[in-house]
Amino acid sequence: MKTRSKLATFLLFLLSSTGMIIAGCSNEPEFLQEKDKAQKPRPEFTHKNDAISNSRQNAITEAVRIASPAIVGITVTEVRQVGYNPFGGLFNDPFFSQFYRRNELVQGAGSGFLISSDGYIVTNDHVAGNAKKIEITLTNGKKYDAKIIGNDPVSDVALLKIEGEDFPFLSIGNSEDVIIGEWTIAFGNPFGLFDNNAKPTVTVGVVSNSGVSFKGADNRVYKDMIQTDAAISSGNSGGPLLNAFGEVIGVNTVIYSTATDNRGSGSIGIGFAVPINRVKKILEKLKQDGKIDRDFTPGFLIQQIDERVARYFQLEKKQGVVVIEVRRGTPAEKAGIEPGDIILEIDGTKIENSEDIELAIFDGVVGQTLNLLIDRSGETIKKKLYLERVK
Q1: From 155, 237, 265, 267, the catalytic residue
Q2: Going from the N-terminus, what domains does the chain have, and what CATH number goes with each?
């Protein structure tokens, strides 16, 4: 036994001197053991990261703390036309629902946020614009009936109001000042989860892009949108997108999603918020007039320039759209626009395709003048298109 004990002691000494004791050996592959030579942040940034790691309280948690009380859950009841089968179970075929429609009360959920102590709330038009009844839930569990002060389907912005005073509200930031890569914090009510405990869901990401414009359903115009990878899902619409200072920089509105079921769409990291500077301009008009007057028609039809059109007009480039018809007595005729004119720019924005011109014109308001740059038979000319109300 003594011999075995001495042998064991000798082996232990030998292994420890060669660094081969199992508990002390590296679990990393050999090619990863040069980590001391790897790229490292500068010391001043390392210290800052240490400060964050050493404390669970940071800029983001502070922004969440101050902003959460001003987030609201929105439950709406609206009338929608839905298809139905008048024969019941006799012919259980969805074919019939294409022809038989009836009005039904439908409930939906969305998000919003308070912008004043007297109860003004911002949300999306597609959340509450057509609602017959709107119920607001605050984070203290209290519920209020809300009324629509105004809504604008084109920009997808709605302004609501609840009665009361001394409500918590958010600080409004400057969306012109956003930095690609800076932190973003999205608040909302995905899938109606706000009803579980009267608390908003918080997700964090970065500003992925800015100045993104595209046309949505029902002729909605989404201009200069802020893109973020903070998770935004069905029910988040109308909630605020904040920076790390707790300031609102946008209103969560649109997501691209491949994950959809009967409860809605989930996030795949591509979400868009209406920039708050655009929202502020809309809110001023909604509070004053209740709507934005967009009841106009420009009075011309266009065709996007493709290979065939470019060849017909002997064009070197496929930029712009060509006017194919001008209607009598319309703003287009009064502006001197003619069939065959190629629209190159509107208010300094280049027109590359038909969607560009839809974004520029559909976002107009009655009384606005649009400055058009036109190519007419090789000559560049300028025209002013005054948007008149339809009579």
Answers
A1: 237
A2: 43-292 (2.40.10.120), 300-386 (2.30.42.10)
